[in-house]
């Protein structure tokens, strides 16, 4: 899975990258919390949703529509195979995230029935209390802790949203200039993900 972060529409070069290296593209919207220090109130979030929908149209739309005609004029007549949208970027701790997420979810689902929508909330330990096709899981930790997470998804229900592991890495003092321990810890974590095929991995 290939991941693209954007603040206006979708970066065209990122979409082109998916042609050669992946058949999946993700648009990450940060407007549910704008930045880690600022938030958009749910009562005024609608313009950001419309911008998001314009971005999806740019990537997926028929070349005769407004935004996808711009894509076509840039040399890419066929729609990109964009299947996923992540709503927010590490926004689940923000006061307005859930309210904004639900508005994004409703409007994206109404316009694009088959796009899978990904929540920032981690559903690996506690079931989500809102609709989502997948949830975003990120981990930066020590080598020992990474080893301990090899089986973390073994007990996750297969009936709910799937897992999208968007970022993972061994960090802190274990890294140094690179080590076999770090490589093995990350590889072991990936083996655990491979054993749980309901997961998607990026990064």
TrEMBL record:
Domain of life: Eukaryota
Regions annotated as coiled coil: none
Gene3D superfamilies assigned: Glycosidases
Domain Alpha-L-arabinofuranosidase 1 catalytic: 37-157
MF annotations from Gene Ontology: alpha-L-arabinofuranosidase activity
Name assigned to this protein: Alpha-L-arabinofuranosidase 1-like
Record organism: Cicer arietinum
Gene that encodes it: LOC101500042
